[in-house]
Design brief:
The protein has a single domain, classed as Glutamine Phosphoribosylpyrophosphate, subunit 1, domain 1 (4-Layer Sandwich). By secondary structure, it is α+β, with helices and mostly antiparallel strands. The chain is built from 4 helices and 15 strands.
Length: 268
């Protein structure tokens, strides 16, 4: 399976430290060697880097890892192919426009017998179940709300309903953002950590790299990092319960809803 990395902040922040550990998992410390990608929001614009090579040996990944692009919302993905061949067209994250904003989506999992009717407003370029799910999700949002973007609470509720429909077809861990917020669905496995004052040191699991965040932050900074598996070994990561949809904004969880039977656990 693939792995996901997301960042949501209250101020533009670079993801170099977390990406260094994540990059190593793309064929180095783990088996996800079928391509990688990362998207950075900057205002209404988006920088999108994609490469079908393993991230651990990709010159483009090396560039991104040393390029301190500052963003409030970032989504990254390393791929272990399930549906669709190894190639640029099947490499996550995927990007589409809706309501005058770019939307970014990345998926970890495998959807079976998911062949929804698409009306042509959003069409997959590649052959992955992931891009198909993204196109259908955006199609249904446009169908429900028309040409005007809804309030965020209405949007979260609508994405929740669509997530329930897709998740019935298999494993559907995903990250979704339009640059203002980040939605994360833990179908089976996702964790997050919120970094805020008082800032301390953090040490990567996959690389012998330590950063002292107190040297590069202000007391008002807040950063939420979401990953399939924790990236550091000395921070208190929160495991998202399987079957939960999370809304992150300004560097912290705002709301969560259960997407499978069981108690609905609210974030602390």
């Amino acid at each position: 399976m693939c792995q996901l990395l997301g960042m949501n902040c209250n101020v533009p922040t670079d993801i170099c430290f977390s990406f260094t550990g994540f990059q190593a998992r793309g064929g180095g410390t783990d088996v996800h060697s079928d391509g990688w990608g990362i998207a950075f929001f900057e205002g209404k614009g988006t920088r999108l880097f994609l490469d079908p090579q393993p991230s651990c040996t990709s010159p483009l990944a090396e560039l991104v890892g040393h390029y301190p692009i500052r963003s409030k919302n970032v989504i990254a993905h390393i791929r272990k192919a399930t549906q669709g061949s190894i190639g640029l067209e099947n490499t996550h994250p995927f990007m589409r426009e809706l309501w005058g904003r770019y939307w970014i989506f990345a998926h970890n999992g495998n959807l079976f017998d998911f062949n929804p009717e698409l009306d042509g407003s959003f069409v997959p370029v590649g052959l992955t179940d992931s891009e198909r799910a993204f196109c259908w999700l955006l199609q249904e949002l446009r169908r429900k709300f028309g040409s005007t973007a809804p309030a965020r609470a209405e949007l979260f509720a609508a994405v929740y309903t669509l997530t329930l429909a897709i998740a019935r077809h298999g494993e559907f861990n995903y990250l979704l953002s339009n640059g203002d917020w980040l939605f994360a669905h833990a179908s089976t496995k996702l964790s997050f950590v919120v970094r805020q004052a008082p800032f301390t040191q953090a040490h990567l699991k996959d690389q012998d790299v330590t950063v002292d965040f107190s040297d590069m932050t202000t007391p008002n900074d807040r950063v939420a990092v979401i990953a399939t598996l924790p990236l550091t070994d000395n921070e208190a990561w929160t495991t998202m319960p399987a079957g939960t949809l999370w809304w992150f904004e300004e560097g912290e969880p705002v709301q969560t809803l259960a997407t499978m039977p069981g108690p609905n656990k609210q974030p602390a």
